[in-house]
Fold:
Amino acid sequence: MNEELFISGRDNLNIDPVLHIWHWQIPVYLFLGGLAAGLLFFASLYTIQNKDKEYRTAVKIAPFLAPFALILGLIALFLDLKHKLFFWQLYTTIRLESPMSWGAWTLMIITPLSMIWAASYIKEIFPNWDWKFKWLIQFDKWVVKNRKVFAWLNIYYAIILGVYTGILLSAFNARPLWNTSLLGPLFLVSGLSTGAATIMWMSKDQAERKMFSKIDLILIGIELFFIVHLFMGFLASSQVQIEAANLFLGGEYTAMFWIFVVGIGLIIPAVLETLELLGKHIPVFVPATLILIGGLVFRFIMVDAGQVTRYLY
Amino acid sequence: MRYAMAIDTRKCVGCSDCVVACQTENNVPIGYCRDWIVETVAGTYPNVEIELRSERCNHCDNSPCVRCCPTGASHYEEGGIVTVHHNECIGCGACIQSCPYDARYSHPEGYVDKCTFCLHRVEKGQKPACVSVCPTKCMYFGDLDDPNSEVSVVMRNRNHKVLAPEAGTKPHIFYLT
Ligand code: SF4
Ligand code: SF4
Structure:
Protein backbone atom coordinates (compact mmCIF):
# COMPACT_ATOMS: atom_id res chain seq x y z
CA MET A 1 0.00 0.00 0.00
CA ASN A 2 1.24 3.42 -0.84
CA GLU A 3 0.50 5.71 2.03
CA GLU A 4 0.95 9.39 2.06
CA LEU A 5 0.99 11.23 5.29
CA PHE A 6 0.89 14.96 5.70
CA ILE A 7 2.08 16.77 8.74
CA SER A 8 1.61 20.48 8.65
CA GLY A 9 3.07 22.91 11.13
CA ARG A 10 0.26 25.35 10.52
CA ASP A 11 -2.32 25.96 13.21
CA ASN A 12 -4.20 29.13 12.28
CA LEU A 13 -7.44 29.75 14.12
CA ASN A 14 -10.52 28.73 12.08
CA ILE A 15 -8.28 27.46 9.27
CA ASP A 16 -6.74 24.39 10.90
CA PRO A 17 -7.27 21.51 11.36
CA VAL A 18 -10.26 22.04 9.07
CA LEU A 19 -11.43 25.29 7.62
CA HIS A 20 -14.28 26.82 9.58
CA ILE A 21 -14.29 30.49 8.76
CA TRP A 22 -18.01 30.67 8.04
CA HIS A 23 -20.26 29.80 10.95
CA TRP A 24 -24.04 30.03 11.36
CA GLN A 25 -24.36 33.49 9.82
CA ILE A 26 -23.81 32.51 6.20
CA PRO A 27 -26.32 29.61 6.08
CA VAL A 28 -28.90 31.80 7.81
CA TYR A 29 -28.21 34.56 5.30
CA LEU A 30 -28.56 32.14 2.40
CA PHE A 31 -31.78 30.70 3.83
CA LEU A 32 -33.42 34.07 4.40
CA GLY A 33 -32.29 35.29 0.99
CA GLY A 34 -33.76 32.21 -0.67
CA LEU A 35 -37.00 32.55 1.28
CA ALA A 36 -37.39 36.22 0.32
CA ALA A 37 -36.60 35.36 -3.29
CA GLY A 38 -39.33 32.70 -3.23
CA LEU A 39 -41.93 35.02 -1.70
CA LEU A 40 -41.21 37.85 -4.13
CA PHE A 41 -41.08 35.49 -7.09
CA PHE A 42 -44.60 34.17 -6.57
CA ALA A 43 -46.00 37.59 -5.69
CA SER A 44 -44.66 39.04 -8.93
CA LEU A 45 -45.50 36.00 -11.03
CA TYR A 46 -49.20 36.11 -10.16
CA THR A 47 -49.31 39.85 -10.56
CA ILE A 48 -47.87 39.57 -14.03
CA GLN A 49 -50.41 36.85 -14.82
CA ASN A 50 -53.25 39.05 -13.47
CA LYS A 51 -54.12 36.46 -10.86
CA ASP A 52 -53.76 38.69 -7.83
CA LYS A 53 -57.42 38.07 -6.88
CA GLU A 54 -57.09 34.28 -6.84
CA TYR A 55 -53.76 34.24 -5.05
CA ARG A 56 -54.29 36.99 -2.56
CA THR A 57 -51.93 35.66 0.10
CA ALA A 58 -49.12 35.13 -2.38
CA VAL A 59 -49.44 38.56 -3.96
CA LYS A 60 -50.55 40.77 -1.09
CA ILE A 61 -49.87 39.22 2.29
CA ALA A 62 -46.89 36.88 2.25
CA PRO A 63 -44.58 39.52 0.67
CA PHE A 64 -44.77 41.42 3.96
CA LEU A 65 -42.31 38.86 5.29
CA ALA A 66 -39.80 39.50 2.51
CA PRO A 67 -38.33 42.80 3.75
CA PHE A 68 -37.97 41.34 7.24
CA ALA A 69 -36.25 38.25 5.89
CA LEU A 70 -33.93 40.40 3.79
CA ILE A 71 -33.04 42.73 6.63
CA LEU A 72 -32.41 39.85 9.02
CA GLY A 73 -30.31 38.27 6.27
CA LEU A 74 -28.28 41.45 5.89
CA ILE A 75 -27.79 41.55 9.65
CA ALA A 76 -26.56 37.95 9.56
CA LEU A 77 -24.14 38.89 6.76
CA PHE A 78 -22.96 41.86 8.76
CA LEU A 79 -22.38 39.68 11.81
CA ASP A 80 -20.21 37.42 9.69
CA LEU A 81 -17.88 40.27 8.76
CA LYS A 82 -14.80 40.35 10.91
CA HIS A 83 -13.70 43.87 10.00
CA LYS A 84 -17.13 45.35 10.57
CA LEU A 85 -16.28 49.05 10.67
CA PHE A 86 -15.17 48.81 7.06
CA PHE A 87 -18.37 47.19 5.77
CA TRP A 88 -19.19 50.28 3.73
CA GLN A 89 -16.30 49.35 1.47
CA LEU A 90 -18.72 46.81 -0.02
CA TYR A 91 -20.67 49.67 -1.52
CA THR A 92 -17.80 51.70 -2.89
CA THR A 93 -17.34 49.42 -5.88
CA ILE A 94 -19.05 46.76 -7.97
CA ARG A 95 -16.90 43.79 -8.83
CA LEU A 96 -18.76 41.50 -11.20
CA GLU A 97 -16.23 38.71 -10.75
CA SER A 98 -17.05 38.56 -7.06
CA PRO A 99 -20.43 36.99 -6.21
CA MET A 100 -20.16 38.52 -2.74
CA SER A 101 -20.04 41.95 -4.39
CA TRP A 102 -22.92 41.68 -6.87
CA GLY A 103 -24.93 39.77 -4.28
CA ALA A 104 -24.54 42.60 -1.79
CA TRP A 105 -25.68 45.03 -4.49
CA THR A 106 -28.63 42.82 -5.41
CA LEU A 107 -29.71 42.93 -1.78
CA MET A 108 -29.30 46.69 -1.79
CA ILE A 109 -31.80 46.86 -4.66
CA ILE A 110 -34.27 44.13 -3.78
CA THR A 111 -34.67 45.13 -0.12
CA PRO A 112 -36.20 48.54 -0.92
CA LEU A 113 -38.16 46.97 -3.79
CA SER A 114 -39.67 44.45 -1.38
CA MET A 115 -40.52 47.23 1.08
CA ILE A 116 -42.25 49.22 -1.63
CA TRP A 117 -44.17 46.13 -2.70
CA ALA A 118 -45.41 45.37 0.81
CA ALA A 119 -46.17 49.03 1.59
CA SER A 120 -48.27 49.44 -1.53
CA TYR A 121 -50.68 46.79 -0.23
CA ILE A 122 -51.07 48.22 3.26
CA LYS A 123 -54.01 50.37 2.18
CA GLU A 124 -55.77 47.41 0.65
CA ILE A 125 -55.40 45.29 3.76
CA PHE A 126 -56.08 48.05 6.27
CA PRO A 127 -58.58 50.35 4.51
CA ASN A 128 -58.30 52.95 7.26
CA TRP A 129 -54.59 53.33 6.80
CA ASP A 130 -53.42 56.86 6.18
CA TRP A 131 -50.00 57.61 4.71
CA LYS A 132 -50.15 61.09 6.34
CA PHE A 133 -47.70 62.85 4.04
CA LYS A 134 -48.77 64.02 0.65
CA TRP A 135 -45.74 62.74 -1.15
CA LEU A 136 -46.20 59.29 0.38
CA ILE A 137 -49.80 59.19 -0.79
CA GLN A 138 -48.70 60.19 -4.26
CA PHE A 139 -45.87 57.69 -4.27
CA ASP A 140 -48.27 54.96 -3.17
CA LYS A 141 -50.62 55.83 -6.03
CA TRP A 142 -47.77 55.86 -8.49
CA VAL A 143 -46.60 52.41 -7.37
CA VAL A 144 -50.13 50.96 -7.58
CA LYS A 145 -50.45 52.38 -11.08
CA ASN A 146 -47.11 50.90 -12.14
CA ARG A 147 -47.61 47.63 -10.32
CA LYS A 148 -46.62 45.57 -13.37
CA VAL A 149 -43.32 47.37 -13.73
CA PHE A 150 -42.53 46.62 -10.11
CA ALA A 151 -43.60 43.02 -10.59
CA TRP A 152 -41.14 42.61 -13.46
CA LEU A 153 -38.35 44.25 -11.47
CA ASN A 154 -39.12 42.06 -8.48
CA ILE A 155 -39.26 38.80 -10.37
CA TYR A 156 -36.01 39.60 -12.12
CA TYR A 157 -34.17 40.44 -8.92
CA ALA A 158 -35.81 37.56 -7.04
CA ILE A 159 -34.36 35.10 -9.53
CA ILE A 160 -30.93 36.75 -9.34
CA LEU A 161 -31.11 36.63 -5.54
CA GLY A 162 -32.19 32.98 -5.52
CA VAL A 163 -29.44 31.91 -7.89
CA TYR A 164 -26.91 34.07 -6.08
CA THR A 165 -27.41 32.17 -2.83
CA GLY A 166 -26.03 29.13 -4.64
CA ILE A 167 -23.42 30.89 -6.75
CA LEU A 168 -21.90 32.47 -3.66
CA LEU A 169 -20.74 28.96 -2.81
CA SER A 170 -20.29 27.45 -6.26
CA ALA A 171 -17.82 30.14 -7.32
CA PHE A 172 -15.24 28.70 -4.92
CA ASN A 173 -13.22 26.26 -6.91
CA ALA A 174 -11.08 25.60 -3.82
CA ARG A 175 -13.98 23.80 -2.05
CA PRO A 176 -14.80 20.82 -4.26
CA LEU A 177 -18.25 20.23 -2.73
CA TRP A 178 -19.38 23.70 -3.76
CA ASN A 179 -17.70 23.80 -7.10
CA THR A 180 -20.58 22.71 -9.29
CA SER A 181 -22.79 24.87 -11.45
CA LEU A 182 -25.80 22.88 -10.20
CA LEU A 183 -25.67 24.74 -6.91
CA GLY A 184 -27.17 27.95 -8.36
CA PRO A 185 -30.32 26.27 -9.73
CA LEU A 186 -30.55 23.95 -6.73
CA PHE A 187 -30.50 26.83 -4.25
CA LEU A 188 -32.96 28.77 -6.40
CA VAL A 189 -35.44 25.88 -6.45
CA SER A 190 -34.97 25.26 -2.75
CA GLY A 191 -35.55 28.96 -2.03
CA LEU A 192 -38.70 28.96 -4.18
CA SER A 193 -39.99 25.92 -2.34
CA THR A 194 -39.45 27.54 1.08
CA GLY A 195 -41.31 30.58 -0.26
CA ALA A 196 -44.16 28.43 -1.58
CA ALA A 197 -44.37 26.55 1.73
CA THR A 198 -44.66 29.84 3.63
CA ILE A 199 -47.43 31.08 1.33
CA MET A 200 -49.26 27.77 1.70
CA TRP A 201 -48.97 28.06 5.45
CA MET A 202 -50.26 31.64 5.56
CA SER A 203 -53.09 31.21 3.12
CA LYS A 204 -56.66 30.81 4.38
CA ASP A 205 -58.03 30.08 0.92
CA GLN A 206 -58.48 26.42 0.00
CA ALA A 207 -57.85 26.86 -3.71
CA GLU A 208 -54.70 28.87 -3.11
CA ARG A 209 -53.39 26.32 -0.62
CA LYS A 210 -54.00 23.55 -3.07
CA MET A 211 -52.18 25.42 -5.80
CA PHE A 212 -49.13 26.00 -3.59
CA SER A 213 -49.23 22.42 -2.43
CA LYS A 214 -48.93 21.39 -6.07
CA ILE A 215 -46.18 23.92 -6.72
CA ASP A 216 -44.28 22.59 -3.72
CA LEU A 217 -44.63 19.04 -4.97
CA ILE A 218 -43.17 19.98 -8.33
CA LEU A 219 -40.34 21.93 -6.72
CA ILE A 220 -39.52 19.04 -4.39
CA GLY A 221 -39.39 16.75 -7.43
CA ILE A 222 -36.95 19.10 -9.17
CA GLU A 223 -34.85 19.36 -6.03
CA LEU A 224 -34.56 15.59 -5.70
CA PHE A 225 -33.61 15.37 -9.36
CA PHE A 226 -30.88 18.01 -8.85
CA ILE A 227 -29.58 16.27 -5.73
CA VAL A 228 -29.23 12.96 -7.56
CA HIS A 229 -27.45 14.76 -10.40
CA LEU A 230 -25.21 16.58 -7.99
CA PHE A 231 -23.85 13.32 -6.63
CA MET A 232 -23.70 11.69 -10.05
CA GLY A 233 -21.66 14.62 -11.24
CA PHE A 234 -19.30 14.46 -8.28
CA LEU A 235 -18.79 10.72 -8.56
CA ALA A 236 -17.88 11.09 -12.22
CA SER A 237 -15.43 13.91 -11.52
CA SER A 238 -11.95 14.31 -10.03
CA GLN A 239 -10.74 12.65 -6.84
CA VAL A 240 -11.41 15.68 -4.65
CA GLN A 241 -15.03 15.76 -5.78
CA ILE A 242 -15.45 12.02 -5.30
CA GLU A 243 -14.25 12.55 -1.75
CA ALA A 244 -16.72 15.42 -1.36
CA ALA A 245 -19.58 13.18 -2.48
CA ASN A 246 -18.43 10.44 -0.13
CA LEU A 247 -18.98 12.75 2.83
CA PHE A 248 -22.68 12.26 2.06
CA LEU A 249 -22.50 8.65 0.90
CA GLY A 250 -21.17 6.99 4.01
CA GLY A 251 -19.09 9.84 5.42
CA GLU A 252 -19.77 12.09 8.37
CA TYR A 253 -22.67 14.04 6.85
CA THR A 254 -24.58 11.02 5.58
CA ALA A 255 -27.15 10.68 8.36
CA MET A 256 -27.68 14.43 8.74
CA PHE A 257 -28.20 14.96 5.04
CA TRP A 258 -30.39 12.01 4.15
CA ILE A 259 -32.53 12.16 7.28
CA PHE A 260 -32.98 15.91 7.74
CA VAL A 261 -32.69 17.32 4.25
CA VAL A 262 -33.98 14.56 2.00
CA GLY A 263 -36.25 12.68 4.44
CA ILE A 264 -37.75 15.31 6.69
CA GLY A 265 -37.30 18.27 4.35
CA LEU A 266 -38.36 16.77 1.03
CA ILE A 267 -39.86 13.27 1.03
CA ILE A 268 -42.12 13.44 4.10
CA PRO A 269 -43.63 16.81 3.10
CA ALA A 270 -44.09 15.48 -0.43
CA VAL A 271 -45.97 12.45 0.91
CA LEU A 272 -48.09 14.61 3.23
CA GLU A 273 -48.96 17.01 0.44
CA THR A 274 -49.89 14.16 -1.88
CA LEU A 275 -52.19 12.77 0.83
CA GLU A 276 -53.71 16.22 1.25
CA LEU A 277 -54.34 16.50 -2.48
CA LEU A 278 -55.96 13.07 -2.35
CA GLY A 279 -58.45 14.38 0.16
CA LYS A 280 -56.94 13.39 3.52
CA HIS A 281 -56.79 16.21 6.03
CA ILE A 282 -53.26 17.13 7.02
CA PRO A 283 -52.65 20.28 9.12
CA VAL A 284 -50.91 22.61 6.69
CA PHE A 285 -48.26 23.76 9.13
CA VAL A 286 -46.74 20.27 9.23
CA PRO A 287 -45.46 20.01 5.65
CA ALA A 288 -44.71 23.75 5.62
CA THR A 289 -42.51 23.64 8.73
CA LEU A 290 -40.79 20.50 7.53
CA ILE A 291 -39.91 22.16 4.22
CA LEU A 292 -38.61 25.24 6.00
CA ILE A 293 -36.54 23.19 8.44
CA GLY A 294 -35.21 21.08 5.57
CA GLY A 295 -34.21 24.21 3.65
CA LEU A 296 -32.38 25.66 6.62
CA VAL A 297 -30.59 22.43 7.50
CA PHE A 298 -29.63 21.99 3.85
CA ARG A 299 -27.80 25.32 3.88
CA PHE A 300 -26.11 24.59 7.19
CA ILE A 301 -24.86 21.24 5.93
CA MET A 302 -23.69 22.60 2.58
CA VAL A 303 -21.77 25.49 4.15
CA ASP A 304 -20.26 23.26 6.81
CA ALA A 305 -19.38 20.28 4.65
CA GLY A 306 -18.02 22.46 1.85
CA GLN A 307 -15.39 23.84 4.18
CA VAL A 308 -14.25 20.32 4.99
CA THR A 309 -13.56 19.51 1.33
CA ARG A 310 -10.24 20.62 -0.12
CA TYR A 311 -7.38 20.00 -2.49
CA LEU A 312 -4.45 19.45 -0.18
CA TYR A 313 -4.29 18.25 3.41
CA MET B 1 8.45 41.49 -13.98
CA ARG B 2 7.13 38.35 -12.30
CA TYR B 3 8.32 37.46 -8.83
CA ALA B 4 8.53 33.80 -7.92
CA MET B 5 10.14 31.54 -5.39
CA ALA B 6 11.74 28.16 -5.85
CA ILE B 7 12.22 25.97 -2.79
CA ASP B 8 14.53 22.99 -2.76
CA THR B 9 12.74 20.09 -1.07
CA ARG B 10 16.01 18.15 -1.02
CA LYS B 11 17.84 20.78 1.00
CA CYS B 12 15.06 21.81 3.38
CA VAL B 13 15.48 20.22 6.80
CA GLY B 14 12.22 21.52 8.25
CA CYS B 15 13.88 23.66 10.90
CA SER B 16 11.09 26.29 10.80
CA ASP B 17 13.56 29.19 10.76
CA CYS B 18 11.59 30.66 7.86
CA VAL B 19 8.43 30.51 9.93
CA VAL B 20 9.97 32.34 12.86
CA ALA B 21 11.72 34.88 10.62
CA CYS B 22 8.41 35.72 8.97
CA GLN B 23 6.58 36.02 12.26
CA THR B 24 9.23 38.40 13.55
CA GLU B 25 9.65 40.44 10.40
CA ASN B 26 5.93 40.88 9.81
CA ASN B 27 4.63 41.06 13.37
CA VAL B 28 2.45 38.04 12.83
CA PRO B 29 0.20 37.64 15.90
CA ILE B 30 1.10 34.83 18.28
CA GLY B 31 -0.46 31.53 17.29
CA TYR B 32 -0.70 32.42 13.60
CA CYS B 33 1.64 31.94 10.67
CA ARG B 34 2.02 33.14 7.11
CA ASP B 35 4.38 30.32 6.18
CA TRP B 36 4.60 26.83 7.59
CA ILE B 37 6.37 23.50 7.19
CA VAL B 38 4.70 20.45 5.69
CA GLU B 39 6.16 16.98 5.88
CA THR B 40 4.82 14.23 3.67
CA VAL B 41 5.71 10.58 3.93
CA ALA B 42 4.88 8.41 0.96
CA GLY B 43 5.28 4.68 0.50
CA THR B 44 5.31 1.72 2.86
CA TYR B 45 8.02 1.11 5.41
CA PRO B 46 10.88 0.53 4.78
CA ASN B 47 10.51 2.03 1.32
CA VAL B 48 9.40 5.46 2.28
CA GLU B 49 10.15 8.84 0.88
CA ILE B 50 9.93 11.99 2.91
CA GLU B 51 9.45 15.43 1.50
CA LEU B 52 9.78 18.64 3.46
CA ARG B 53 8.23 21.80 2.16
CA SER B 54 8.13 25.34 3.38
CA GLU B 55 4.72 26.59 2.21
CA ARG B 56 3.07 29.99 1.94
CA CYS B 57 0.79 31.97 -0.37
CA ASN B 58 1.62 31.02 -3.95
CA HIS B 59 1.07 34.51 -5.34
CA CYS B 60 -0.97 32.86 -8.04
CA ASP B 61 -1.30 34.28 -11.53
CA ASN B 62 -4.96 33.35 -11.68
CA SER B 63 -5.79 34.16 -8.09
CA PRO B 64 -9.28 33.16 -7.00
CA CYS B 65 -8.75 35.30 -3.89
CA VAL B 66 -8.37 38.48 -5.93
CA ARG B 67 -11.32 37.56 -8.11
CA CYS B 68 -13.77 36.88 -5.29
CA CYS B 69 -12.91 39.87 -3.13
CA PRO B 70 -15.98 42.14 -3.10
CA THR B 71 -14.10 45.33 -2.28
CA GLY B 72 -10.87 45.00 -4.21
CA ALA B 73 -8.90 44.76 -0.95
CA SER B 74 -7.13 41.69 -2.32
CA HIS B 75 -5.17 42.85 -5.31
CA TYR B 76 -2.01 42.39 -7.38
CA GLU B 77 1.02 44.49 -6.70
CA GLU B 78 3.89 45.10 -9.05
CA GLY B 79 5.47 41.82 -10.09
CA GLY B 80 2.35 39.73 -9.46
CA ILE B 81 2.57 39.86 -5.67
CA VAL B 82 -0.87 39.38 -4.13
CA THR B 83 -1.58 41.48 -1.05
CA VAL B 84 -4.50 42.80 0.99
CA HIS B 85 -5.25 46.47 1.68
CA HIS B 86 -6.21 46.17 5.34
CA ASN B 87 -8.39 49.29 5.24
CA GLU B 88 -10.48 47.99 2.38
CA CYS B 89 -10.96 44.50 3.77
CA ILE B 90 -14.32 43.87 5.41
CA GLY B 91 -13.36 40.45 6.74
CA CYS B 92 -16.05 38.61 4.79
CA GLY B 93 -13.86 35.53 4.49
CA ALA B 94 -14.58 34.95 0.80
CA CYS B 95 -10.90 34.97 -0.09
CA ILE B 96 -10.15 32.48 2.69
CA GLN B 97 -12.72 30.13 1.18
CA SER B 98 -11.32 30.65 -2.29
CA CYS B 99 -7.68 29.75 -1.63
CA PRO B 100 -6.95 26.08 -2.38
CA TYR B 101 -3.83 26.34 -0.22
CA ASP B 102 -5.53 27.83 2.83
CA ALA B 103 -2.75 30.38 2.81
CA ARG B 104 -4.82 33.16 4.37
CA TYR B 105 -5.97 33.69 7.89
CA SER B 106 -8.22 36.10 9.71
CA HIS B 107 -6.07 38.52 11.69
CA PRO B 108 -7.34 39.09 15.26
CA GLU B 109 -7.88 42.73 14.27
CA GLY B 110 -10.47 41.62 11.73
CA TYR B 111 -8.84 41.94 8.33
CA VAL B 112 -7.39 39.09 6.34
CA ASP B 113 -3.66 38.61 6.31
CA LYS B 114 -1.19 36.46 4.44
CA CYS B 115 2.32 36.29 2.99
CA THR B 116 3.29 39.44 1.09
CA PHE B 117 6.57 38.09 -0.30
CA CYS B 118 7.89 40.71 2.12
CA LEU B 119 6.94 43.40 -0.37
CA HIS B 120 8.42 46.08 1.91
CA ARG B 121 11.83 44.38 1.69
CA VAL B 122 11.59 43.44 -1.98
CA GLU B 123 10.88 47.07 -2.87
CA LYS B 124 14.21 47.96 -1.28
CA GLY B 125 16.01 45.27 -3.25
CA GLN B 126 16.21 42.86 -0.33
CA LYS B 127 14.99 39.30 -0.26
CA PRO B 128 11.96 38.08 1.71
CA ALA B 129 12.77 37.36 5.37
CA CYS B 130 12.29 33.59 5.02
CA VAL B 131 14.67 33.41 2.06
CA SER B 132 17.41 35.42 3.68
CA VAL B 133 17.31 33.51 6.94
CA CYS B 134 17.22 29.92 5.65
CA PRO B 135 20.29 28.12 7.08
CA THR B 136 20.41 25.58 4.24
CA LYS B 137 19.90 28.27 1.57
CA CYS B 138 17.13 26.17 0.06
CA MET B 139 15.01 29.07 -1.17
CA TYR B 140 15.52 31.12 -4.31
CA PHE B 141 13.65 34.32 -4.96
CA GLY B 142 13.61 36.63 -7.93
CA ASP B 143 12.14 37.73 -11.21
CA LEU B 144 11.03 34.94 -13.54
CA ASP B 145 11.08 37.30 -16.51
CA ASP B 146 14.80 37.82 -16.03
CA PRO B 147 16.58 34.72 -17.39
CA ASN B 148 19.60 35.43 -15.19
CA SER B 149 17.81 35.75 -11.87
CA GLU B 150 18.69 33.00 -9.41
CA VAL B 151 15.17 31.63 -9.49
CA SER B 152 15.18 31.38 -13.31
CA VAL B 153 18.58 29.73 -13.31
CA VAL B 154 17.74 27.13 -10.69
CA MET B 155 14.44 26.30 -12.36
CA ARG B 156 16.19 25.71 -15.67
CA ASN B 157 18.53 23.23 -14.07
CA ARG B 158 16.19 21.33 -11.79
CA ASN B 159 12.90 19.45 -11.97
CA HIS B 160 10.15 21.30 -10.24
CA LYS B 161 6.49 21.08 -9.39
CA VAL B 162 3.75 23.27 -7.99
CA LEU B 163 1.06 22.35 -5.47
CA ALA B 164 -2.46 21.48 -6.61
CA PRO B 165 -1.94 22.58 -10.24
CA GLU B 166 -5.40 21.09 -10.96
CA ALA B 167 -6.93 23.96 -8.99
CA GLY B 168 -6.01 26.15 -11.95
CA THR B 169 -4.50 28.97 -9.94
CA LYS B 170 -1.10 29.09 -11.69
CA PRO B 171 0.90 29.20 -8.47
CA HIS B 172 4.29 30.89 -8.32
CA ILE B 173 5.98 28.92 -5.58
CA PHE B 174 7.92 26.12 -7.23
CA TYR B 175 9.25 23.08 -5.42
CA LEU B 176 12.52 21.68 -6.69
CA THR B 177 12.36 17.90 -6.52
S1 SF4 C 1 -2.06 30.98 -2.74
FE1 SF4 C 1 -4.11 31.48 -2.08
S2 SF4 C 1 -3.95 33.51 -1.16
FE2 SF4 C 1 -2.11 33.20 -2.37
S3 SF4 C 1 -2.57 34.11 -4.40
FE3 SF4 C 1 -3.04 31.91 -4.51
S4 SF4 C 1 -5.21 31.79 -4.04
FE4 SF4 C 1 -4.51 33.80 -3.32
S1 SF4 D 1 -11.98 39.05 3.66
FE1 SF4 D 1 -11.18 41.05 2.95
S2 SF4 D 1 -9.61 40.58 1.39
FE2 SF4 D 1 -10.86 38.73 1.73
S3 SF4 D 1 -12.46 38.78 0.16
FE3 SF4 D 1 -13.34 39.72 2.01
S4 SF4 D 1 -12.88 41.91 1.77
FE4 SF4 D 1 -11.56 40.85 0.31
Observations:
- Strands of chain B lie at 3-8, 36-44, 47-55, 74-76, 82-84, 105-106, 112-113, 139-143, 160-161, 173-176.
